[in-house]
């Protein structure tokens, strides 16, 4: 069952590792990498983003320092064999090239370790061709891309997913072999499968499909033999546990697939594009995707492609990538001749029937189908806009078209790809050769400026010394100013305190003065009321005087009447004696009344004179009180203005105090700033002295 993967954030198993101690940051690996942006070149050694690495191994074969190597499952394989784990092995046909003349001895060696059966992937390749041919005959697709190479499959899944429908929907030869074992060799169905392989990228294929437990490279097998000090020649040569293959033994050679397919579909060469090597295949796939997107015409219907230029015989898991190609292919050719002889009886026609009969026993529809996964979500590299690209170019000293060299010293093959890496924080300007040359040019010019700079530094030091002297003078004056401000602040503080107290007392007196004005006003009103009362009494006394005059008149008349009555009584004799007595009493009463009225009149006259004098004096008093009230009111207004002035003066003095406090704070800050400025001038002087020393060393160099 195929492993479930998602389109974004899919983690891929690391297949390549870096030894930082051996790496010299030469960027040969970046130059060799067809992906480029799976490398992070910002550090001292390029790091790998495994989720974008296709596992092609081209960086390993290009590294002359041995800083790049691969991960495989060799340790786990040998450990589990030692524990008695049930394991079968499948061996890639490139073993005939890598273990020349002893590839069957390899089978004996594996079984001596405990491997219970060994199968030939060449036979799986025969089944693969059968799957391809059946698919092309039944579905008649317009284009089919071969998929035995896992690096190419991963590249398409990551970077050109539009080509996924064109990938042959059939398993690779290795997966055909594993499925064949699971289906037709039930005794090994539950055994783990070790793949003896020239390819480090096969691990990705096994992870994606869930088939294959150990990817063990030829290099690891050779290392184990050296560790055991064992020669394969000493091991028994043993045949594979599956039927023999025919010309599919040439699969590890470029064109081996076509050579096998031509047996089934004669003339397939005419409609096939055969292409191998990372410098050719990946640009071809990119252009193919663009062409298909634009509706371009295809001159071929089948693409036979391999990542490794020398085929699987020189894969990154072989250690033979620098061997001459004819040396690698010769053992394969020899094996192919022998394989074809075994199937050739009396005629070629009979050999094909015999082979078809064998293959049909291990092939059935639907058994070897393969699906693929869109991994383009892993590719999050941003394409810079023209403006952003221009900004990056400026960072690496490129200001015009003449500065675009595309020299490949950075490993990216073009300045634009290098700029894209810098934009995505996968590289830094210092890794651009021409940027470094640009800096060297600037250094040459800087060397010419050093002498002049030293002169200017000397002048600057002299100016700084002068500034320091002025600063000292300013500091002395500032100290005196600060002291004066402190004294002034204290004096003003006392004055302000006195003004505040005076203002408070004046405010209280203002209230008392207002009371005096009110009392004076009330006194003036009372005096007016008194004068009015005296006038009213005088008028009343005048009325009484008139009444007294009337009484006095009445008394005179009564006296006259009493006299007449006495006369009449005398005339009456004894009869009028009693009346005479009454008349006498009346006369005496009238005289008393008259006397009293005169006395009252005299008294009233005196009272009236006193009242008039009182009225006159009261009027004068009223005038004096009115004048005094007016003057008190005027004085009160003057005092009010004075008190208001005291209030304003008190408020203003508060502002003066605040201003003095601010002035004191500013003086303190100025002193601090002065100290900081002094420290900065000292630091500047020290920096200039150091700069002068650097300039002197630069000139000397």
TrEMBL record:
<dbReference type="GO" id="GO:0005886">
    <property type="term" value="C:plasma membrane"/>
</dbReference>
<dbReference type="InterPro" id="IPR007202">
    <property type="entry name" value="4Fe-4S_dom"/>
</dbReference>
<dbReference type="GO" id="GO:0051539">
    <property type="term" value="F:4 iron, 4 sulfur cluster binding"/>
</dbReference>
<dbReference type="GO" id="GO:0004888">
    <property type="term" value="F:transmembrane signaling receptor activity"/>
</dbReference>
<dbReference type="InterPro" id="IPR009016">
    <property type="entry name" value="Fe_hydrogenase"/>
</dbReference>
<dbReference type="Pfam" id="PF02906">
    <property type="entry name" value="Fe_hyd_lg_C"/>
</dbReference>
<keyword id="KW-0807">Transducer</keyword>
<dbReference type="InterPro" id="IPR017896">
    <property type="entry name" value="4Fe4S_Fe-S-bd"/>
</dbReference>
<feature type="domain" description="4Fe-4S ferredoxin-type">
    <location>
        <begin position="14"/>
        <end position="36"/>
    </location>
</feature>
<dbReference type="GO" id="GO:0007165">
    <property type="term" value="P:signal transduction"/>
</dbReference>
<comment type="similarity">
    <text>Belongs to the methyl-accepting chemotaxis (MCP) protein family.</text>
</comment>
<keyword id="KW-0408">Iron</keyword>
<dbReference type="InterPro" id="IPR004108">
    <property type="entry name" value="Fe_hydrogenase_lsu_C"/>
</dbReference>
<dbReference type="GO" id="GO:0006935">
    <property type="term" value="P:chemotaxis"/>
</dbReference>
<dbReference type="Pfam" id="PF13237">
    <property type="entry name" value="Fer4_10"/>
</dbReference>
<dbReference type="InterPro" id="IPR017900">
    <property type="entry name" value="4Fe4S_Fe_S_CS"/>
</dbReference>
<dbReference type="GO" id="GO:0046872">
    <property type="term" value="F:metal ion binding"/>
</dbReference>
<keyword id="KW-0411">Iron-sulfur</keyword>
<dbReference type="InterPro" id="IPR004089">
    <property type="entry name" value="MCPsignal_dom"/>
</dbReference>
<protein>
    <submittedName>
        <fullName>HydA1</fullName>
    </submittedName>
</protein>
<keyword id="KW-0145">Chemotaxis</keyword>
<keyword id="KW-0479">Metal-binding</keyword>
<feature type="domain" description="4Fe-4S ferredoxin-type">
    <location>
        <begin position="44"/>
        <end position="73"/>
    </location>
</feature>
<dbReference type="InterPro" id="IPR004090">
    <property type="entry name" value="Chemotax_Me-accpt_rcpt"/>
</dbReference>
<keyword id="KW-0004">4Fe-4S</keyword>
<feature type="domain" description="Methyl-accepting transducer">
    <location>
        <begin position="456"/>
        <end position="678"/>
    </location>
</feature>
<dbReference type="Pfam" id="PF00015">
    <property type="entry name" value="MCPsignal"/>
</dbReference>
<feature type="domain" description="4Fe-4S">
    <location>
        <begin position="388"/>
        <end position="449"/>
    </location>
</feature>
<dbReference type="InterPro" id="IPR051310">
    <property type="entry name" value="MCP_chemotaxis"/>
</dbReference>
